[in-house]
Every structure is written in structure tokens, then in C-alpha cells.
## 1
Amino acid sequence: MFILLKKLFKFLVYTSLVFILTSSVCHMVIANASKTQLYDTVKTIPKTKVGIVLGTSRLLRNGTKNLYFYYRIEAAKKLFDAKKVNYLILSGDNRVDEYNEPKDMHDASLAAGIPDSCMVLDYAGLRTFDSMVRCKMVFGQDSVIVISQEFHNARAVFIANKIGLTAFGFNAKKVTTQQTTKIKIREFFSRTKCILDIYVLNTKPKHLGKKIKIG
């Protein structure tokens, strides 16, 4: 019995090490592949017809404002005011009636002064992968500015590169006070899943549907 437990322990240790090493490689591959396509300033980023704001919850579980959400809306407003984008796709999760990221982004963007006529809501952006594929396949875009925090933009732009969508990431303001450790851990494993989706699993978005024309 002791020998079996010892072997099991060794197996778990080796498996964990391999997984961590693989995840670390995936993390670095995505970071290095997309870093030249990420921008911190409005002035330097190329102009595109459409920007895509990647969704997140408006509020944290404790009921306070989610700064990741509001900083993305702020970044989208900067791009729109500078005429770097003419339209915005607000892509997020709406798999249940009680949770609607696109509508929350729409309401916040409207309050920020972005015209309703310049916004398109994508209710099927269940994951970053889905949002980027739908941007190309459903909304018919060949180029786009992705609007999120830098760590998220890196993965979104990497996906775009692999599906033939020209993408530039506009980095929203960093969040340093809310769930930063949790977000970093989640992103670490999300990048591993991203590599698997593209190179191993040949993943498809959960929903595609008919094409939607913008503008």
C-alpha cells in the first residue's frame, strides 16, 4: 500500500510539474507573439472602422464597481473621441437573463457619450475566443482594435492572428486594487486553454449564426 501511494505521489508531482511548465511556455508564447500589436496611447494606434470591447462583469460579487469594466469603457471612449474607431462591438456573456455584459457595456458607453447608433451588441461573446472569431465570421471585420487590459489584449490579439483577423490592442488602464492575484492566475491558465483551443482541440464558438453588417 505504501509503495502504491508513493508511486501515486510521484505521478502527481511529475504531472503537476509538466502542466506548470507547459502553461508557462504557453503564457510566454502568447505574450511574445502579440507584444508589438499592443498600444498604450491613442495617438500611436492605427485607425480601424471597428473596435471591440471585451466583456466583464459591471460589479464585483461584493456589489462594488468592477474597475476592469469601467476602465475598458473609458478606453473605448478615448478611441471613439479621437476618431480611431467609428463603431464599437460590445461583446460579452449573456447566457442567462440575469447577467448581461453587452447591455451593461452599452448603458455605460451611452452614459459616457458614445452614440447608440455607433454600438453593436454581441450577446454571444461567451469567451474571448468566441468574441474574436465572431468579430470576423459574424460581423465581417478584417481588422479591429481590441479594447481591454493589456494581459487580456495579448491573448485576444494572439487569437486574431491565428484566425486571419488583423488586430491591435488598446490597453485600458491597469487595475491594481481589485482581485489582481486572482486575475493573474486565471489568465495564466486561460492562455494554456487558448493554445489548446487553436492547436489541439480545433475549438469553434458556441454560437455563430447569420452575418451582421456594421455601418
## 2
Amino acid sequence: MSRKKLVIRDNSTLRAQYNSLRKGDIIVGRLRLRASEESLLFDLKERGVHLIPPGLSQLASRSKALQAALFAPYMLPLTRAIHCHHDLIEAFSDYQRNSATPVVTKLDRRNAGMGVHLWQSVEEVFTHASLGNIPYPFVLQPFEPDGHDIRVVFLGDYIEAYRRHNPHNFRNNMHHGGQSEPYELAAEQVELCRLVMARGRFPYGHLDIIVTKEGKSYLGEINLRGGIRGAQIAPEEYRKKVEALHQQLLENYMK
């Protein structure tokens, strides 16, 4: 006799029943995992356990290096994950060939702009990485000094965008003193968000869009959750919309 699908909504219950989970069971909510435990998401997927949000989106939210691999077609040209000295040497040639200076690095698991650093050249990055001052992996990309930084909050049918700007810091995050103003997305920018979310299986997300001085839009990064300082949506409304999306996915799996 088959049992009913088990629905788990908290990490404590997940830990207690991890080995008894079966195909068709459902975990609602992001898993709190150490970096060394992330392979558990793969195990759950292989066993047929449904994850809400999907495991790929949870992994991508945790790793900027993974995002560079998944979303390379949507990011600034030459953006790549650097996992070792060999990757950096290869990047050096490409950046020199394209006269791409200065550059930005993003540490893999840092948020709110805390892991973003500006360098005058890839050679400078190579020097510091060789001396052990930059931990691998990290993301390397060209610096766009005259571009716009657009934050998009994408929650199902609710889409809100605002431009972030900081006249005193190249990091435009609100955490670093950035200012915000409402921004109207063009149709192609909404489509960019949809393509990125579909590729990473994000049912909702916070996306950072880089708009170059030529008017081209590229993905900066994406996360399932992020700060909403500067957004018009209130925290309680935000929470309700996320829960409604979770419930919708849950109902689909329960059919």
C-alpha cells in the first residue's frame, strides 16, 4: 500500500526524515545547507523528491560561479568563472585581445556587494590571485563604468524594477549607500529576465540587469531572495506573493 506524498516545510523535519524520503515527496522552501552539503540537492533530485523552489535555482542562488556557467549567453561578453590559475591565464589572453580593462571580480559566495572588487587589469587580478589574496572560484567580467544598474523583483505576475545609483562608490547596492529610483523595463528586458529564470528554473527572483551606455542589457546576477530596500513592494506583501507561488507549485505536484 502506497503512502501519501510527504510535504516537508522546515529544515529540522527534513534532517530527521532525509533517508526515508521517497519519490513524489515534496520539500517546500529553500534548504539551509553548508557548502559541503550541496550535493544533497542532487541526491534528492535523483530520488524523485520535488524541491520548491527547484534545486537548480537554489544552487545558482548560492554560487556566482555557477551562474557564470549557466547564464553566460545573457551576461556581459567575456564574463566567466575562474576556478584556477589556468582559467585566469586563458582569460588574460582573451581580455588583452579585446582591450577589456578595467575589470571586476566577484567572490563566489558573497552578497550585497561585499565580494565585488575593481581592478585595473587582469594582470593585477593574476598577481593577487597568485599571492593567495583572491580565493577561487570567482567571477571575472569587464567593468562598465557608464552603465546603469537595474534591480528587478520578479514575482509571478508582479514585476517591479528600479535603478540603483551611487555617486560615491562603484558598488550601487543599497547596502553601500546607493540611491534608487523607479525604472520602466523595456519589453526585451522583461524577456531577458524570463529567459534567465527559465534557464535556471527560478519560479521568482531578484535580478540585477546591467544596461551599457550603448543601451544593451545583460544579466549581472540573480538570486531567489534579496533585499527590497528601494523597492515599492512592502515586506509583508512580498512574503505573501512568495508563499502564493510556493503554494501554486505545491498544488501542481500534488495532482
## 3
Amino acid sequence: MDVIYFAGGCFWGTEHFFKQIEGVVNTEVGFANGNIDHPTYEQVYTDTTGFAETVKVEYDPAKIDLEYLVDMFFATIDPTSLNKQGHDEGTRYRTGVYYTSKEQLSTIEKVFARQQAKLSAPMVVELLPLNNFFAADEYHQDYLDKNPNGYCHLPLELFRWAKNQSKEKN
């Protein structure tokens, strides 16, 4: 299995989106690239820890490739919105892709260039190596599965679209 990390605003919706994609074998919500060890949600919420709400996505490269996952990620975000996705604002809601190898970086850069070419404003999506990742409390894991009517900045149609894209790809 391979792994990549996506920060797409509130991690509840981002996680639920990636769970719809065939080839994604596991997801975990947490906090990436901050400046303290083992942060709590309450600490991250202050926007003083440097962390972004992030989803760890484990996937089977025999079934799905990284380029496809990064393209799908861009369908969930406004790449020109700094520290804000939907109604969620703050540095913890910034967007980013955090990689763990040079091989991943070259693939991600290709997608970033393609996505930027579609825009008239510059992208503000971070593209950085993963420095650290700490899992969020169990309460936050699979939140929208546990709370189907829970808050989400992403429209429900996007989840159905992701599931259908996976079917059409195969």
C-alpha cells in the first residue's frame, strides 16, 4: 500500500470523500505539519500550532494511482482560497498535499501544473513534505459515517460523484 496526505478544509468531509474511491483501503483524520507533539483538537483549533486538518489516505497502487487521487482532491477544494474552505476559516483549514517521497513529488507537481493552468488566479495549496502527522481522537474518525446528518462543507452530491467516478474508471 502507498500513502498520501490531503488537507482539504474540515477533515470530516475530506475523509468521507476519499472513502468513496475504489482503491482507497484506509483513511485516518488527524493533524499534519505543526509545531508541537500530540496536539489535541482544542489546541489545533486555536490556530497557534501550525497544524492543518489532514486526511491520511492509504491506497492500493495496483487499483488506483496517485495522479488520479490528486486530481480527485482538487474536485473537493477551492485551490485559490487561503485558509478557508466553505464556512470553515483559519490556518487549520488550509489546503495542502503532503508527500513522503521524491517519486510522489514529481507526480503531484504534474497535477498541480495542470490544475493551475485551469485557473486565472494563483493556487494557494501547500505542496510540502510530510513533517509529522498525529491522529485525531476517535470521535473524529469516520465522523460522517457515525453522524450521517453531521456538518460537512462538501455537498452530498460530491460523495456520490466520487463513488461513480471510481466505477466509470474500471
